[in-house]
Design brief:
By secondary structure, the protein is mostly helical. The protein contains five helices and no strands. The radius of gyration is 19 Å and the shape is elongated.
C-alpha cells in the first residue's frame, strides 16, 4: 500500500502557514463516492425498517448488524475513492454487483419495497459507473483519443 499524499496536493502557503485546499477530485471518483454514500444511506434506511418488520429480536439484530457493516464499508470505500486509492474501485464494483442480489433477497415485500428497488437500481448504476470509468480513474488525460484527434 502506498500511504503518500497525492502529488497534486499543494505545499503550505508561506504567508499564512495554512495548507492550500485539496485538489479537485476527478468526476468519475466524485460520482462513485456519491453513489457509495447513497448506498450507505439506503443501508441505514433498511436497518431502520428491520425492527418494524422482524417478528423476532435475534434475526432483527443480525440484519441490523449486517446493514450497519454494509453502510460502514460503503462510507470507507467512498473515502478511499476520494483519496484515489486503487482498492476502492474494486470494492465499489463488488458493492455495486452485490447490491441488487442483496436487495432481491428480501423479496421486495412491504415495508422494504422502495428501499429494495432503490438499492437494486443504485447497485446496477454503481457497477456500470465503475466499469465505464475503470481505465480513466488514475489518468490525468481523461479525454478519449477520438476527441483529441478532432481538435487537431
Amino acid at each position: 500500500m502506498n500511504s503518500r499524499l497525492p502529488k497534486d496536493l499543494a505545499a503550505a502557503d508561506a504567508d499564512s502557514g495554512k495548507a492550500s485546499p485539496a485538489p479537485d477530485i476527478r468526476p468519475g471518483r466524485r460520482l462513485t463516492a456519491v453513489l457509495l454514500l447513497a448506498a450507505a444511506a439506503l443501508d441505514l434506511i433498511r436497518c431502520s425498517l428491520v425492527p418494524i418488520a422482524a417478528p423476532h429480536p435475534a434475526p432483527a439484530a443480525g440484519l441490523i448488524a449486517a446493514g450497519l457493516a454494509a453502510a460502514a464499508l460503503s462510507v470507507r470505500t467512498a473515502r478511499g475513492c476520494q483519496a484515489g486509492r486503487r482498492w476502492s474501485s474494486w470494492a465499489a464494483l463488488l458493492i455495486g454487483a452485490t447490491s441488487a442480489p442483496q436487495a432481491a433477497a428480501s423479496g421486495f415485500h412491504s415495508p422494504y419495497t422502495i428501499p429494495d428497488t432503490a438499492t437494486a437500481a443504485l447497485g446496477i448504476l454503481l457497477a456500470v459507473t465503475i466499469l465505464a470509468t475503470a481505465g480513466r480513474m488514475d489518468r490525468r488525460d481523461t479525454a478519449p483519443e477520438i476527441l483529441l484527434a478532432k481538435k487537431r
